[in-house]
Automatic annotation (TrEMBL), chains A, B:
InterPro entries: FAD-bd_oxidored_4_C, FAD-bd_PCMH, FAD-bd_PCMH-like_sf, FAD-bd_PCMH_sub2, FAD-linked_Oxase-like_C, Oxid_FAD_bind_N, Vanillyl_alc_oxidase_C-sub2. Residues 36-213 form the FAD-binding PCMH-type domain. Its cofactor is FAD. It comes from the Bacteria. Belongs to the FAD-binding oxidoreductase/transferase type 4 family. Residues 21-42 are annotated as: Disordered. Keywords: FAD, Flavoprotein, Oxidoreductase, Transit peptide. This is D-lactate dehydrogenase (cytochrome). Its EC number is 1.1.2.4. It comes from Paralimibaculum aggregatum. Residues 21-35 have a biased composition (Basic and acidic residues).
Amino acid sequence: MSIETAIAELAPRFGERLSRAEAVRAQHGADEAHHAPHPPDAVIWPESTAEVAEIARTCSAHGCPIVAWGAGTSLEGHVIPVRGGISLDMSRMDRLLEVHAEDMDVVIQPGITRKRLNEELRATGLFFPVDPGADASLGGMAATRASGTCAVRYGTMREAVLALEVVLADGRVIRTGTRARKSSAGYDLTRLFVGSEGTLGIITELTLRLHGQPEAISAATCAFGRLEDAVQTVIETIQMGVPVARIELLDPLTIRGFNGYSGYDMPELPTLFLEFHGSEASVAEQAETVGAIAGENGGRGFDWTREPEARNRLWAARHSAYYAQQSLRPGARGYVTDVCVPISRLAEAIAETEADLAESPLMAPLVGHVGDGNFHLSILIDPEDPAEIAEAARLAGRINERALRLGGTVTGEHGVGLGKRKYMAAEHGEAWGLMGEIKAVLDPAGILNPGKIVPGN
Amino acid sequence: MSIETAIAELAPRFGERLSRAEAVRAQHGADEAHHAPHPPDAVIWPESTAEVAEIARTCSAHGCPIVAWGAGTSLEGHVIPVRGGISLDMSRMDRLLEVHAEDMDVVIQPGITRKRLNEELRATGLFFPVDPGADASLGGMAATRASGTCAVRYGTMREAVLALEVVLADGRVIRTGTRARKSSAGYDLTRLFVGSEGTLGIITELTLRLHGQPEAISAATCAFGRLEDAVQTVIETIQMGVPVARIELLDPLTIRGFNGYSGYDMPELPTLFLEFHGSEASVAEQAETVGAIAGENGGRGFDWTREPEARNRLWAARHSAYYAQQSLRPGARGYVTDVCVPISRLAEAIAETEADLAESPLMAPLVGHVGDGNFHLSILIDPEDPAEIAEAARLAGRINERALRLGGTVTGEHGVGLGKRKYMAAEHGEAWGLMGEIKAVLDPAGILNPGKIVPGN
């Protein structure tokens, strides 16, 4: 078998850095969400671009699938090797290669995680703002075009990546982009690889744009009697042009999850978590403006704080949302949705979703990066119960179709993976076919993360 | 001949909207820069996407080149039909289709120019910030990934385009992107077409991101004794994270050009033009901060004003720079360079360039979007004198090679066109070949703006 031939060729070369142990394969055969697992035939831990290129050449010659693996925190089954083959665990390629503090950029290997990157940057006065919650690897974040809580102010991985080194399916190593802030020098290959989920090439190096640590940071929370009032506050804040750094919506169920999971004691009401970055004066001005908007929309108190401790506690809660939500139903897994709509349609999208949920037997807490028009349900299911899986799929289907009808997308930040592929034709029309044509040129043998994103394979 | 066959088929269909008149062909055979003109065989003014698709199908069948034409303001020969064929003049597809004020986006046809777009948006409280100086068409600006004076704050066409409708070489019509602010739904085809200079498809509709008109705007100028002190002021301003809306460097020659061309009376010194957007308080704070930085670097007076009239006068001067510079030598044309480097290397890039110029017989005024690390020379040449053209090419070559050595790009915003193609291999290495492979899939017959961007054709 061709996979076996590839592994047999690579095994002596990689020694202990190639494993076929069942536990290791199982670990690399699942992500954090509800998708059915499928193990790779082997896992390899490369340590250099040259090794990745060697693996690509061998796998290309033998038609053996390669699935890149970062931290395994993705939620749409991207890393599940549905056709077997090799999981390429990038965790040993985790070096910070260059910090250019004067240019506010950094060159890294893909295996470094975002928390470690920010720890290493602390002394420079700079930080990397893309924050999906999970401590994901930066390579994985680029591959899924991740974003998260700070995207409303600082953009997503689309804006954050300045340049890439990529190993192509045939082992060629290319570099895209430069450290210059902008360029009109030909096709934007950097943006083509960002979000390609390992189906066009393996990212082996990234140059990322950094930002200055803000002079002042303040955080705020505000509870509302009705979900729609919280949403209206968000819409007005964005439309006023307030440069909020984070603006997150949490529904009463999610707050109940925090209270139980992390021992908080917040009123179980629709709540906004906010953060403001800027000068002392600007942060105060922003908080005042948003406080006034919230007040006009019936916000109950607008508590803001400059205390780092209170702030960290708030965002630690927010980052635990996925787990806190699952704790609402012990043993459950979250079937997670990820739509993003134009902000003028956000209230409608959420209200119709809530109406769906009122008629469903399943519990589905909601959180949202609402400043971008992006929100998630975590539909809590018993992963062993086909009826519950079917009901979650039905709810998710309605949410996704609604997002498309409202001019939005079925995935704001989680990516396509296994879960969203069936919506690609509806979202992209003929352009989906074009994605397939591009994939066929870059990966004619279809060895890079097969079964994902494009039609057919 | 295949071009003749295509035109013969299209002529009865388009009537007076297809012209073979010599003057019309000559007008569509040149841009505003020094590149040798070459006329198309015919010019067609399409009025709908369906017509563009029909032209593409006919031209595809007969191997007839198609070169899209916006306002003809590009500087690298992008619109010059070096293989003849048809110039597709998009000026009749210039409608504003939808304004979504609540979502801060707009849907337009490609022929509308940026000034008209902003006039039409005035009453909405929104504006479109990408400002390359020339009153370019938005389709052309997307095709060249244009930017200009406001990019330091608001980004380039890369960030500004949310979605596109594109006619492919074979006449298929695709839509890329949605009105959602972010998406992880597959390959970023929007960014692939932005900057592709009409070589991958013809843009027939654009959805653009808008911004709120700032509550307060102030402008400032500051002159310096030495160019390096002005550059150092820029570097420190950016590194401090001051959100300047514009920060432009003009050398003494350019100021002399303004004084003569537009009747200004500014000291002929290296000068920064700045603009600040924000709340009243934030604008004052920004001006104060930058004023202090300029003072520490020897800036001579830091004049700032809230007067719209003085501000408009300033930017009218800036926008006339290309013509003001040419007026320094009557009859001359500008041979324009466009490098962009990491900001830490900007001082070095400019100083070495100035040293080159000191030894050259040619005059070459400098302006720069220096907040991005991007600057232009306009090397003033007699377009009929081969020796001067050769000297300009030699100077430009040194500047471009230096930019690559310093980690930058040969084109920050003007695009590749005819002028920068020879540097693509040096800038992109093997990735340039990949661009050619992608072009071959999307345009197998090579009819879309042949002779541009990719290797070979």
